[in-house]
Amino acid sequence: MAGSRNKLLIPGIEQYLDSIKYEIAEEFGVQLGSNTASRSNGSVGGEITKRLVKHAQSELAGSQNQES
């Protein structure tokens, strides 16, 4: 992530995101790269976001259930 000003809060997250990116691309039949339509590349990014949000929601629900 050269040049990025974003600070990563979770060590090793870049490797995780790379692995899930290629896993999703394979599921969608998308060949990632500069020659791929931006819509196809974007569909992979959108799916990553959906899965991360779903995971966070289930984590939050689990922690709220433990507090009850």
From TrEMBL:
PROSITE patterns found in the cross-reference section: SASP_1 (PS00304), SASP_2 (PS00684)
GO biological process, one term: DNA topological change
Keywords annotated in UniProt: DNA-binding
Gene Ontology molecular function: any one: double-stranded DNA binding
Gene3D superfamilies hit by this protein: Small, acid-soluble spore protein, alpha/beta type-like
InterPro entries xrefs: SASP_alpha/beta-type, SASP_alpha/beta-type_CS, SASP_DNA-binding, SASP_sf_alpha/beta
Biological function: SASP are bound to spore DNA. They are double-stranded DNA-binding proteins that cause DNA to change to an a-like conformation. They protect the DNA backbone from chemical and enzymatic cleavage and are thus involved in dormant spore's high resistance to UV light.
Family the entry assigns: Belongs to the alpha/beta-type SASP family.
Protein name as catalogued: Small, acid-soluble spore protein C3
Species name: Bacillus smithii 7_3_47FAA
Upper classification of the organism: Bacteria, Bacillati, Bacillota, Bacilli, Bacillales
